[in-house]
Inverse folding.
């Protein structure tokens, strides 16, 4: 007898606001429940404790937000995906928004193995923008950027310079609107490798803090804006980003970044509630 | 009302599990802060993961939010890391819905399910910026109210709370809200006046309206001789009992948290009360009579909630759940409904599994989505001991249950026992390991790696049980028994032993039966940093020893000594529905090793729980469930015999022996 046919869908979603404090594992549980609520024919593993067959991309650290999270789901039958993104968003808690759903060929690499790099947007506090700019320039010019990290319980020295694919200061005190709660922050954009020697945003900030001479330099908000994979030698996203007109500005975290910052976010949640 | 969110948010990346503090649950009510509404903040004095699933608080939270003139939020004890940061940054305790300071609410209402949370109660009140002692609170401070099983002896915390609610809360929260609404309309703002009115609400005990009487002025040696009203408050406060659960289908929208909590599944209460009559069990005594929810309502509540929440597991909650009339057809219907709805595989769990093959069979059939562990609670190691505690499970019943479990694929079963029970001998204690060894042998027939986990807790006598007069074993004695068990378990392959810290059991006992004199002891432990005493990494007996000594008290007087029939008990001014002479008689029966049948299917023995309220047990079926009136695995319909020794009841017994 042939094994039952398998069908796969890939989901792209955003995670923003208070829900950033929920762990990756808990987000997985939220999706399991949402998939049941919309009655998707999810495939289950065999055995004593069957589990739904979901596989996520790279885990997002607690406290980080994202416009580009991915989830692959195995199904037992082919389904219509036309309004699935909206139905899933409806079934998920506030702050999790599904932007795209697509059928996926079986057999392509799992997300975790395929992703080669991620883009990050990082807001920094604790040092003047000029000091951050200098530290960034110094880091980019350096042959080596050595950090100490703990791996498997042991301290390890690593040169993480090759993991910095792109790094620039994109905003500072003057460049943000004056009513923005981020005024005073410095905004960084970085593309960091996830293969070979990888580098996490917090590690990058710690390395910059050491070079800037401002030990108090810390990240206040961190957003993942893109995850990249290489297909036939071309860098692309696992699913194309949402089209700007697809959704109204209100529900798209990509465009309401300023309004999601602390005080306004609270006002918004009060109004919505 | 101000929100503390903007102050809290930068701290959250610094603490463990920040999702505890963000709210956003599915099912959360979000009535905006509005000074014209009577406002309640429902608190559980332990972590979010432990407190969120509390069904009692969820029920009251919904009932209050349904009222047009009131609103409710929730709060939980922040873990020690955030607690320290909040104190450093002067952030007050907040509700998780709007991050409103708790001090801005009219009522801070705590559920007290465990005595060891009392220091956390004080900590939460203090962290709210409210004075911990009720007599230091001003007219603008919230009223601190407590409810839940521990409040059947609220005396140890009587000076720290403004009001205590006894029994089912569904109606009382409304009555209390009405009192405050009336006061506002009439312009009454003085705290003492409002408290005096609350003291006249049925089932509400306002401790400041009562004074304890002692045998002498030196409180360190005195005995409690009475607790009397100071003004015109009633001399006895009777618990509230909701007669018909069908009228209260709550929670209608169970909270679904964003982060994993204990009991993280749909929970539907199928009945309240239990008349099996286990003499150690306070829950079974104080929640009588039995009131079942109609099966149709259970089915509707389950199917609606599964669809709304996306949970794949539902737990039917009650004491001894398999006793629910027609439990088999109810669970079969639930499974069929969920299959029809296309929600994927669903598991139904019965948290309180009866010790017989019937229970296991049902468990195996019900757990289609995932199998959870199987736990049985024989409670004592010998038949003699089980007669004394009236948990009339025969060895054969246990062996049949275990046989059924291992043969159906479980590799490990868990057994719960109590040590330090009345008249317990070392033979009784060691009988625990003998039972476990026999269970392992049964398991080995089916799986070479079969094992049995034995979980042992020290017995704490509780108010309103037949054992309320019994002197608790000292922690040294409990430790000696644990050591006996450890030695015996070491030579028993396949038996794993876990035990509760006897020192924590000692403190539990102090608060379970202490009186108002114990309040300053608890306060001192809290002031010395003794919070999260339920958590072994934060519990330390030294603080308790020091606080007892500093106040001049001895554990002996409150915990270890046996009490006599004529002694005034600290909870004698409260009434849980059970006649004191019934409890005393049952205590004497226990010492005479005489069992008592479940009155659902046998004649009434007049414990008082029904007659006092003019209501009857609400059971759908006049036939005892499979397994018989004591769950002994015998089919009574074919003439089985319940192994209850119904001997002559000794009318005058000796005092307790141990």
């Amino acid at each position: 007898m042939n094994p039952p046919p398998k069908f796969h869908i890939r989901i792209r979603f955003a995670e923003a606001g208070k829900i950033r404090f929920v762990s990756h594992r808990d987000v997985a549980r939220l999706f399991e429940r949402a998939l049941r609520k919309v009655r998707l024919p999810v495939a289950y593993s065999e055995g004593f404790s069957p589990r739904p067959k979901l596989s996520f991309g790279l885990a997002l650290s607690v406290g980080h937000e994202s416009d580009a999270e991915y989830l692959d789901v195995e199904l037992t039958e082919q389904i219509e995906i036309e309004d699935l993104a909206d139905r899933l968003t409806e079934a998920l808690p506030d702050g999790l928004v599904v932007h795209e759903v697509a059928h996926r060929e079986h057999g392509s690499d799992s997300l975790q193995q395929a992703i080669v790099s991620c883009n990050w947007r990082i807001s920094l506090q604790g040092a003047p923008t000029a000091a951050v700019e200098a530290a960034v320039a110094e880091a980019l010019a350096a042959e080596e950027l050595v950090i100490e990290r703990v791996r498997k319980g042991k301290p390890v020295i690593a040169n993480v310079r090759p993991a910095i694919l792109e790094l620039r200061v994109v905003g500072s005190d003057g460049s943000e609107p004056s009513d923005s709660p981020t005024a005073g922050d410095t905004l960084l954009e970085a593309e960091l490798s996830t293969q070979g020697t990888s580098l996490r945003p917090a590690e990058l900030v710690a390395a910059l803090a050491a070079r800037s001479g401002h030990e108090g330099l810390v990240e206040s908000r961190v957003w993942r804006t893109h995850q990249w994979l290489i297909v036939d030698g071309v860098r692309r996203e696992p699913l194309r980003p949402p089209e700007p007109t697809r959704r109204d500005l209100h529900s798209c975290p990509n465009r309401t970044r300023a309004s999601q910052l602390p005080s306004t976010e609270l006002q918004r949640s009060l109004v919505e509630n | 009302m101000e929100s503390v969110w903007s102050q809290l948010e930068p701290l959250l990346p610094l603490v463990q599990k920040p999702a505890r503090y963000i709210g956003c649950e599915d099912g959360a009510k979000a009535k905006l802060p509005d000074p014209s509404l009577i406002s309640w903040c429902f608190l559980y004095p332990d972590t979010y993961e432990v407190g969120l699933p509390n069904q009692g608080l969820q029920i009251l939270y919904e009932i209050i939010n349904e009222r047009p003139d009131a609103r409710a939020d929730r709060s939980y004890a922040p873990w020690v890391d955030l607690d320290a940061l909040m104190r450093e940054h002067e952030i007050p305790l907040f509700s998780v819905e709007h991050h409103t300071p708790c001090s801005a609410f009219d009522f801070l209402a705590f559920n007290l399910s465990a005595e060891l949370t009392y220091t956390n109660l004080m900590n939460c009140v203090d962290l709210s910026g409210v004075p911990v002692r009720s007599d230091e609170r001003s007219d603008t401070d919230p009223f601190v109210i407590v409810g839940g099983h521990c409040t059947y002896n609220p005396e140890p915390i009587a000076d720290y709370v403004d009001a205590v609610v006894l029994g089912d809360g569904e109606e009382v929260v409304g009555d209390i809200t009405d009192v405050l609404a009336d006061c506002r309309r009439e312009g009454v703002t003085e705290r003492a006046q409002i408290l005096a009115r609350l003291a006249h609400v049925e089932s509400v005990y306002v401790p400041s309206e009562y004074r304890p009487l002692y045998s002498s002025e030196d409180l360190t040696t005195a005995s409690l001789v009475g607790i009397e009203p100071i003004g015109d408050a009633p001399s006895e406060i009777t618990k509230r009992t909701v007669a018909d659960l069908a009228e209260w289908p709550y929670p209608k929208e169970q909270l679904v948290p964003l982060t994993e909590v204990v009991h993280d599944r749909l929970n539907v209460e199928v009945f309240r009360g239990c008349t099996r009559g286990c003499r150690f069990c306070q829950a079974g005594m104080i929640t009588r009579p039995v009131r079942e929810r109609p099966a149709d309502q259970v089915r509707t509540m389950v199917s609606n909630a599964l669809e709304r929440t996306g949970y794949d597991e539902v737990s039917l909650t009650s004491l001894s759940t398999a006793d629910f009339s027609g439990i088999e057809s109810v669970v079969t219907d639930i499974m069929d409904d969920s299959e029809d709805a296309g929600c994927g595989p669903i598991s139904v769990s019965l948290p309180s599994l009866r010790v017989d093959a019937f229970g296991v069979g049902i468990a195996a059939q019900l757990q289609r989505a995932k199998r959870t562990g199987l736990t049985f609670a024989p409670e004592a190691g010998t038949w003699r001991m089980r007669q004394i505690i009236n948990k009339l499970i025969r060895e054969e019943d246990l062996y049949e249950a275990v046989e059924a479990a291992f043969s159906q694929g479980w590799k490990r079963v868990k057994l719960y026992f109590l040590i330090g029970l009345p008249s317990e001998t070392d033979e009784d204690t060691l009988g625990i390991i003998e039972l476990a060894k026999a269970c392992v042998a049964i398991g080995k027939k089916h799986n070479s790696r079969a094992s049995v986990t034995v979980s042992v807790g020290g017995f704490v006598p509780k108010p309103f049980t037949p054992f309320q007069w019994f002197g608790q074993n000292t922690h040294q004695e409990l430790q000696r028994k644990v050591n006996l068990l450890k030695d015996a378990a070491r030579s028993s392959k396949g038996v794993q032993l876990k035990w509760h810290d006897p020192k924590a059991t000692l403190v539990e006992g102090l608060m379970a039966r202490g009186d108002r004199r114990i309040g300053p002891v608890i306060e001192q432990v809290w002031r010395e940093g003794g919070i999260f005493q339920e958590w072994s990494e934060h519990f330390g007996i030294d603080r308790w020893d020091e606080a007892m000594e500093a106040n001049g008290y001895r554990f002996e007087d409150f915990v270890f000594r046996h009490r006599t029939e004529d002694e005034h008990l600290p909870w004698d001014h409260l009434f849980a529905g059970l006649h004191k002479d019934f409890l005393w008689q049952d205590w004497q029966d226990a010492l005479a090793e005489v069992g008592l049948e479940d009155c659902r299917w046998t004649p009434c023995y007049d414990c008082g729980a029904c007659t006092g309220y003019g209501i009857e047990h609400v059971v759908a079926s006049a036939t005892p469930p499979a397994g018989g009136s004591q769950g002994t695995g015998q089919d009574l319909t074919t003439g089985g015999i319940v192994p209850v020794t119904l001997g002559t009841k000794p009318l005058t017994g000796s005092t307790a022996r141990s």
User: Anything to note?
Assistant: Confidence is low (pLDDT under 50) at residues 626-658 of chain B. Residues 426-444 of chain B form the longest helix (19 residues).
